[in-house]
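tool_call: predict_structure(chain=1)
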Amino acid sequence: MYRGRVRFETPMLWTLGFIVTFSIGGMTGVLLAVPGADFMLHNSLFLIAHFHNVIIGGAVFGYMAGLTYWFPKAFGFRLYDKLGRIAFWCWLIGFYFAFMPSYVLGFMGMTRRLNHFNNPEWRPWLLLELVGVAIILCGVASQALQLYVSIRYRHRYRDLTGDPWDGRTLEWATASPPPLYNFAEQPKVSDLDAYWGMKERGVSTLSHTDYRSIHMPRNTASGLVISLFALVCSFALVWHIWWLAAFGLVASVVAFVVRSYNEDTDYFVPAQEVARIEKARLKDLAEA
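tool_result:
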C-alpha cells in the first residue's frame, strides 16, 4: 500500500479492518506467551478477547473481504455497496465495543464461563459489551439486507466488464461469471500480476477470430464421494468403531477403483460454441 493509490472500496475496508484487528490479537497472543502473564490471565476474559481478536479479525473480516471482492466474478453482479459499507462499520465498531472491554475485565480478574457475578465493578464493562453485540447485530442485519437487495436488483448491479475493481490478476480478464473454459485463448504470462502487466502494455485478452475447440474435463462427484467415505473411516478410527472404519475404508477404495475405470472423463467445447460465448461477451463490453 506504501506509495500506492489505494481506493477504499468495501473489500479494502474489510482488509484494513482485518489487518488492524488481527495485529492486536497477535500482540495479545505474544503477551499470553509470557509464562508469568499467562499464569495470571489464563481462563480469564483476557483470553476470550484475544481469541476473538484472532478469529473475528483474522478470519471473519478476511472472509468478508474475499466474499465482497470475488462475489461479482462468481455470480456476475456486485453486492450493493452502501449496505456493505454500513455492515463493515457496524462490524468493526461493534467488535471493539464487544471485546475490548474483555481485556479490562480479564485484568480485573473476571473468569470465563460464569453463570452469574456479584462484582459491581464489572457491570459497566459488561453493559458496554452488550452495546457492542447490538451494533454487530445491526451489521449482520445489513449484510442480510445487502444480499437480498443485490439479488433482487441483480440486473442493476451486473458486472458487464468482468473487471469491476480494475484488478491485477488473470481472473479479472474473463467475463463474470467466467465461461466454462475460462479463456478462449490461453494468455501468455510474463509478470507477477499478469493482467496488470497486460493493461500497461495494451495487450487484449479478448479473442476475436480463429476460435478453436477447447479440451475440457467432465465434472465428477468422485472426489467428494471418496473423501466422504474416508471421513467416515477416520471418524470411526478415532472412536474405535471398527466395523464402520472397515466400511469406510472399503467403500473409499471401491469408489476410487470405479472412478479409475471410467474412461469418459473429457470432452471438447466446439469452436462454434466458443465463438457464440465470446461474441456475447464482446456485446456486453460494448454496452458497459
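agent: The two ends are 29 Å apart (CA to CA). Proceeding to next step.
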